[in-house]
Structure formats: structure tokens, C-alpha cells
Amino acid sequence: MQLFKYSIIFVLWVGTCLAIGKEDHSDSFEALRFVQAIQGQLPSQWLESPTHWRNLAKEAILSKERQGPLEAVAKNGIFFIGDGMGLTSVSAARVFKGQRDDGARFGEESSLHMETFPYSGLSKTYCLDTQVADSSCSATAYLCGSKARFSTAGLSPGVVFGDCRGQNNTNFHVSSIVEWAQREGKSTGIVTTGRVTAIPGAANWAGIAQRSWETDADVAESGKNPEVCPDSGIQLLRKEAGQRLNVLLGGGRHRLTPVEKIDPETNSPGKRTDGRNIAEEWLVMKEGQSGMARYITGRDELLGLNVSEVDDLLGSFAMQGLPWSDELERDNDPTMQEMVQVAIKILSKNPNGFFLFVHGGKIDSAHHANRPGRALREIVEFDKAVKTGDEMTDDLDTLIVVSADHSHTMGYCGYNVRGNSILRHSIIPADDGFVFSTLNYVNGPGPAWTNPDTGLRHNVLLDNTSNPNYELPVPVPLFSEAHSSEDVPIFAK
Ligand SMILES: [Zn+2]
After folding, report:
1. Is the domain of 134 the same as that of 234?
2. Which domain holds residue 341?
3. Which residues are known binding-site members for Zn(2+)?
4. Which positions in this protein are listed as binding Mg(2+) (predicted)?
5. What percent of the chain has pLDDT over 90?
6. Is the dihedral of CA 118, 106, 328, 408 positive or negative?
7. Residue 134 CA to ligand 1 centre (angstroms)
8. Are residues 266 and 120 in the same domain?
9. In-domain check, residue 72
10. Exactly one of 135, 175, 325, 426 is catalytic; which is it?
11. Per the annotation, where are the binding residues?
């Protein structure tokens, strides 16, 4: 189908160039050269026949027919959010996975596990007061069911950014899906590759008028009184949804512990200035509830747990967010898959069922840094966690939803030959004589698009694009690449 579509585009394009005028030799010549170059790259015997494509279409329709409605009340729910995983990211990650992992001939024909789910849709993501969402207003929307103001979490529109008084007004607090699950007698858990006290996870228990308020020091840094504006760490201990949360796994030890406490693994102090140790206080609180609570900081401890002896688990494996997925082993940090596995084992002991929220935060970090290779790797890791969640549960009693909170400016373009590495560039130069990358960001901290001395565009041919830390050059300089407001996908089963 893809090939058919592109053939049509090429034919129309060539036709248009020829029709514009016989004088326009350069355009038509370039277009023909382009088509010939593309077609010359792929031997026709490699390309699938019409029968292949028609059989695929038939199988897709038949599988929908066989699927039929599944009418039951879900006992368990797992909600996966790929932070910043817009539609373009999903398309590019599919090709990346196909080319790197699947042994696919070209890559484009592969699928992520989330894409095999029987139901899909699209979601708008704007905030109550901004065109483009951040991860906290959107968290309030998809976890609490109400749009919120930019950079606030777990609070209704009555609270503006940084409004302490509003934050303390219980009329402005909005409940979350974690609370609703707890009211139904279900176990609840959160897994994140970010900090455990950060949004979006924290929006499940906390209401904060400024998303950075994870410790008293953060509140003070913003010029507010921490005794008046409780941070998300304190709210984990004070708010009922936090107190009743069974599993909380991720990074962020720096914000759980006081400055006086030197972390034995990293030899660095905590961030809290009020002397509170949230991790230790959580453990004491949970021991009082279930008597089967654990606080862990390493992957080996996580994998060595006897889950029959653990009902409540706090794991904070890194001082900040977890490292990139290919650096986890170096730091004795678990993968998303491993965290999801242990979380489900503990939560599923409850006969009433469970709700688990899983947040893939590294996708967003990579996009913000203009690193497409990193972003695609992190989506593939996220997808493995989705697959684990799917394999460990039964479709008859478990609802799984996978979505994103917003998108990024990454585009996926150029008429490259099928199977061209998704991280590389076009085969035909642009009008300035330089080739261009298949993936591009509109803005961000990457190197300048144009050399200020020569006025020439950055030559990506000279770049090592397979290095995961490679940063794409950008036309608009910005300290951190900006989110985008394109709709995001929803996959469900
Ligand atoms: Zn972001």
C-alpha cells in the first residue's frame, strides 16, 4: 500500500513538473532522477506482491470480525503513558525496532506491541489555559478527568500557577483514578522512569500549584512558604491516596531525603531542608498498615524480593530520574519491564484487583534534548513494558490503555528508499546541495542549523547519527525542545 501510494505521488509529481512547461527542464529532470534513484535502490524481487498486501488486509478485517465485543467489567486496569510519545514518535519507533530488533527486511512493515491492541483512537491534549500541554496539566486530565492550568497538577481550574492559598482550598482538589480504585478496595501502584515524587505520577495523590514542588526546598526556591504549600513528598504521607498507595517505583531519592542524609550509593546529600526523610517515614507508616512493607534502592533487591512477603513497596533506584535504558545495568537500576513485572506480582495478590499507572519518562527527556536515537530506543523499552503488562494479565478481567500526554516537534519526512535507516538522511540533496535527515526537530538545544560564518546548512553527512547521544541540528535555538500539540494515539485492549 505504501509503495503504491508513493508511486502515485511520484507519478503525479513528475507529471506536474512536465506539465508546468517544457522550459522547466531542471525540475522535471530532478524529479525523474529522484524516482530513478529510489527505484534503482530496491530490487523488485524484494518487494511484496499485490497478493501479499491483499492477504494482509483480509487478515486484518477478519481478525476484527473474530474479535467481537468483550462485555465484562474489568477488575484490573493498567494505564501506560509514554511521555511525549506522539504519533510521529510511534511511527518512527516502529521502523527503528523493525530495523534494529525484528530482523525485518526493511523496518517499515514492523509493529510495536501496543499497535497490536484491538482498539485505537486519538486524543486532544491542550491545557485549560495553553494551546500546548505540559506533563502536569495533561496528567490532571487523564488521571483526574479534568483539564487543569499549565504546570499545575491534581487541582481544578480555580488554582492558578504558584497559588498556595488555592492549593490548600479543598474545594479545588480533584480526585484521581488511583483514589477511585482504592475506594473499590483495589491495590494501587505507580511505576515511573522519572522521580517518584514528580508529576505525572504524583498527580495521583497530590495537588500542587507548581509542578516543581516536590520538596520543601523546591517550594522555598520559588519564593513560597513550604509550611503553607505542602510539596508532593509530604502529601504522599498526608493525603489518603498517598497513604494507601501500595507500590511506588522509580528514581528521585534526592528529593525523598534530607540534606543531612548522605546517600550511600552516590555519596551525595538529599534535597529536603526540613529534616524529613520521606522514604523512612513511608516505611514506618506502611509497616503500621500491612506489616509487609519494603523500601529498596537497587535492581538486585527488586529482583530478589519474595513478593508473597511484600504488600507495600517503595523503590527509588536513582538520585534523579532513571538513566537511559542502555545505562541501567551500569547503575544497578531496573528496566521498566522489571519494575512492571514486580508491581503486577504484588498488586495482583488482591482478590479485588488493582490499578497500575506506568510512566515512560525518558522518551520526553530524549526529545527535549533533540536526540531522536534516544527517544526511539526509549519507546521500544516502553513498548516492552507494555508487552509484559499484557502477557501477565488476562484480557477477560484487565483493561490496558496506552497513550501519551503530548507530542514533540519531531517530523519524519523525505522520500527515502524503503529500509533506509530511520536515523539517517535523504539520498538526494536538498536545493542547497546538502542532504537532510529523515527525522528533524523544529527547535531545541541541538547544534545550529546554519553555520553563522559560512551561512551554509549543517552537513549531516558528516555526523555519526547512530550514536544514541547524537543531537540533530535545529533551525530555532531553544534551551529545551518544545512540546507539540498534535493529537496523541490511544491503544486499548
Ligand atoms: Zn516534556
Report:
1. yes
2. 77-407
3. 83, 364, 368, 405-406, 483
4. 83
5. 85
6. negative
7. 6
8. yes
9. no
10. 135
11. 83, 364, 368, 405-406, 483
- Find the 85 Cα to ligand 1 centroid distance in Å: 10
pTM exceeds 0.85? yes
**Ligand 1 mean position, distance from CA 205 (Å):** 21
Residues 32 and 121 in one domain: no
- CA–centroid distance, 133 to ligand 1, in Å, is 9
| Same domain as 295, residue 219 | yes
Same domain, 127 and 275: yes
Task: Supply 206's cell numbers.
Answer: 497530590
Write phi, then psi, for 352 (nearest 5 degrees): -80, -10
pLDDT band at 42 (very low <50, low <70, confident <90, very high): confident
Residue 27's pLDDT band (boundaries 50, 70, 90)?
Answer: low
Domain of 229, CATH number, reads 3.40.720.10
Give the residue from 407, 427, 462 where a domain finishes.
407
- State how many domains the chain has: 2
Residue 442 CA to ligand 1 center (angstroms) comes to: 15
- Same domain? For 278 and 330 the reply is yes
Model pLDDT for residues 348-370, shown as the tens digit of each residue: 999 999 999 999 999 999 999 99
| Gap from CA of 366 to ligand 1 centroid (Å) | 9
Look at residue 128 and tell me if it is in a domain. Answer: yes
Question: Using one digit for the tens of pLDDT, what is the confidence trace for 151-196?
Answer: 999 999 999 999 999 999 999 999 999 999 999 999 999 999 999 9
Same domain, 9 and 102: no
Determine how many CB atoms are found less than 10 A away from the CB of residue 39: 12
- Domain annotation covers residue 263: yes
Has residue 152 been placed in a domain? yes
Confidence of residue 16 (pLDDT cuts 50, 70, 90): very low
- Residues 143, 220 share a domain: yes
Give the count of alpha carbons within 13 A of 443, CB side only: 10
For residue 8, pLDDT over 80 is answered with no
- Please give the C-alpha separations between residue 86 and each of 82, 83, 183, 375, 487, in angstroms, as whole numbers: 8, 9, 33, 11, 7
Angstrom distance (rounded) from CA 163 to CA 101: 48
135: annotated active-site residue:
yes
